[in-house]
Every structure is written in structure tokens, then in C-alpha cells.
Design goal:
The protein has one domain: Jelly Rolls (Sandwich). It is globular. By secondary structure, it is mostly beta strands. Strands 1, 3, 4, 6, 11, 12, 13 and 15 form an 8-stranded antiparallel sheet that branches. A 7-stranded antiparallel sheet has the order 2-5-14-7-8-9-10. Helices cover 10% and strands 36% of the residues.
């Protein structure tokens, strides 16, 4: 009987020691706030970081031209805005892009503004697109030096970035894109491949976030691939976006959007067989900002007649990162 007690005591002691060792080997995540900043861009080591853009302190108070020059050194540019003259919708003395300190992120970020008052901003003063407004930054229109930030044929790419919409952001039933993946050239580059699009009903209700896929009218376009994500979940909140693409006709697209404050996943979408190319194009560029319809209005008529829902709006952007793998060795060549 004493032997049995001794053996049981010894086994109990060994079990306690083993449990203690196992517990020590586990990471202690208690008290850590879930969030995308702790995640790696991709577990695949073949991905290489090709560019990282943040708003710098020195840009605070600088003009749009200086912001554009700064972005160009990272493979982006800021050239599609209403700081122009001639044509329609010019607002040459307006502030459409600025760098401001954000209290939540505790860093400087880009702020994009589009106006109905005092001037109805247009689309780069264009006389051919008087039914819309545009204020966007994009990957540089340059597929030589900056091919590494573009989506080239058969390449895999990851885009990471953050955005924040203000409380009360009001879309209409017409388009209002805050992000686009769009072919730069070729005969089928009119509409974007992918958009992230706030949308509302005709009376301004049912505000929601969509992701839309288009192949310029081809039968492979899937239309709205994400819908009915309440816009209220995004308002006045920073969110982290992570997109992954394989740029082919039988391509791949995923988009995960996570709220920074509490780690809540708002969108988690993946399609492993999606047409992610435009025949005849040489590359796909990424765009960020506010590009919206005047929803019935036209800048070449008086009154313009835009939707009464439209008002001045803002969008904050931060922390852009571009990753690439399976790099195309000849990215300048168009591909069908």
C-alpha cells in the first residue's frame, strides 16, 4: 500500500512539473489588444516589400504640389484633384489634400477633402466628365521605375492601408469609390476591376459598404461581390485593409478589413477564380481617395442639379504598404 502511495505521489509531482513547463512555453497574450498591426503581411516568405508610404511630420501645412512630390519618391502620386483651372469644377485655391496629426493613431496621416461648398469640385477640370468629382492619389503612372508597385500580368500583390470615414459620411445610390484597382491602358480600361464603394438608397438610407468587380462589360464580371456591410461600422473608425491579388484572367482576390480599435473583422472576402485582368493592358494601378458621381448633376449646366444628399466629405488615409511575388520580368508589355 505504501508503494502505491509513493508511486501515485511521484506521478502527481511529474504531472505538475510538466504542466508548469507547458504553461511557461505558451505566449502570454492577456491584455493585448487584437489588431492588424500585429499581423505579418503574408506568411509566404516569397513576398517582398516594394514600397511603404506614410505621411511625414514635415508635410504638415504643405501644398498639394509638395505632397505630390513626396508621394512620388515612394511610387505614388497625387495628381487627380480639383486644384486646377479651366474646364469645369476647378477649385484652384481649395485644400483637397493635407497632412494632419491623428489623435487615435498618434501620427500624421493624409486627409482628403471633396467639396460641394463653396465650389462644386469637378474631375480635374475635365470637360468630358462633368457628371462626377474626383480627389484621388494613386500608384505612379510609371511602369518602368515603379513597376514594383503596379499589378503586372501573372504577379501576386498584397496591398495594406488604413482609412477612416467621418461620422455621417453620406453616399448616394450612384457610385462613390474610395478605392480602385484599375487598368492603366488598353482598349478595355474604362471601368475599374475592383472598387470599395460606400452606397445608399435613393433617399440616403441603407448606408452600406460594397466591393464591386467589373471586367468592362465582359461576361466574366461578377458585379457586387460584397454588399450590405453597415457603413456605421466604419464611421469615425480607423480600419486596416489587406488585399491580395493574382493578376490573371483566372485570378485571385481577397480583402480583409479589420477595425483597428477593437480588432473586429468587418469584411473577410476571398475568390480563388476571378478575372483580374483587362485584355490589352500592361498593368493595374491602385487608387485611393473620393471619386463620386454628382448623382444627376452636371457641372456644365446651371443649376448643376446634383443630388441634395451630397455635401462636403473627408477621408483619412495612412500606412500604405505594397508587397509583391512572382515578379513579371518584362512588366512593360501589354497582355491579353
Amino acid at each position: 500500500m505504501k508503494k502505491v502511495i509513493k508511486i501515485n505521489t511521484a506521478l502527481f509531482f511529474l504531472a505538475v512539473v510538466a504542466l508548469a513547463c507547458t504553461t511557461k512555453s505558451l505566449p502570454d497574450d492577456r491584455g493585448k489588444k487584437p489588431g492588424p498591426d500585429t499581423e505579418k503581411a503574408d506568411p509566404d516568405p516569397k513576398y517582398q516589400l516594394t514600397s511603404a508610404l506614410e505621411a511625414g511630420t514635415a508635410l504638415s501645412g504643405k501644398s498639394y504640389n509638395e505632397i505630390n512630390t513626396y508621394m512620388k519618391s515612394f511610387g505614388f502620386d497625387y495628381s487627380e484633384h480639383a486644384n486646377c483651372s479651366g474646364g469645369y469644377g476647378g477649385h484652384a485655391d481649395g485644400v483637397h489634400c493635407s497632412v494632419v496629426k491623428d489623435a487615435d493613431l498618434d501620427k500624421y496621416v493624409f486627409r482628403f477633402d471633396i467639396h460641394i461648398d463653396p465650389v462644386i469640385d469637378g474631375d480635374r477640370c475635365s470637360a468630358g466628365t462633368v457628371d462626377r468629382q474626383r480627389n484621388e492619389m494613386k500608384s505612379a503612372t510609371n511602369n518602368t521605375t515603379w513597376a514594383k508597385v503596379q499589378g503586372n500580368w501573372d504577379e501576386w500583390q498584397v496591398l495594406e492601408w488604413k482609412f477612416r470615414l467621418p461620422k455621417g459620411f453620406q453616399p448616394t445610390s450612384s457610385f462613390c469609390h474610395i478605392h480602385q484597382l484599375k487598368a492603366q491602358d488598353g482598349p478595355n480600361h474604362g471601368s475599374p476591376l475592383i472598387t470599395i464603394t460606400p452606397r445608399a438608397g435613393s433617399n440616403g438610407s441603407n448606408k452600406r459598404m460594397q466591393i464591386i468587380h467589373s471586367v468592362d462589360g465582359a461576361g466574366t464580371g461578377k458585379g457586387i461581390i460584397v454588399d450590405n456591410i453597415p457603413l456605421a461600422d466604419f464611421e469615425d473608425e480607423w480600419v486596416q485593409v489587406r488585399e491580395e491579388m493574382h493578376y490573371t484572367h483566372n485570378g485571385y482576390y481577397s480583402c480583409k478589413i479589420t477595425r483597428v480599435r477593437d480588432g473586429k473583422v468587418l469584411i473577410d472576402f476571398k475568390d480563388t477564380n476571378i478575372d483580374l485582368w483587362r485584355s490589352g493592358s500592361s498593368y493595374i494601378r491602385s487608387k485611393y481617395g473620393i471619386y463620386r458621381s454628382l448623382a444627376g448633376g452636371k457641372l456644365d449646366q446651371t443649376p448643376v442639379g446634383q443630388s441634395p444628399l451630397l455635401k462636403n466629405e473627408s477621408l483619412w488615409l495612412a500606412d500604405f504598404k505594397v508587397y509583391e511575388k512572382n515578379t513579371n520580368p518584362d512588366p512593360g508589355q501589354p497582355h491579353n
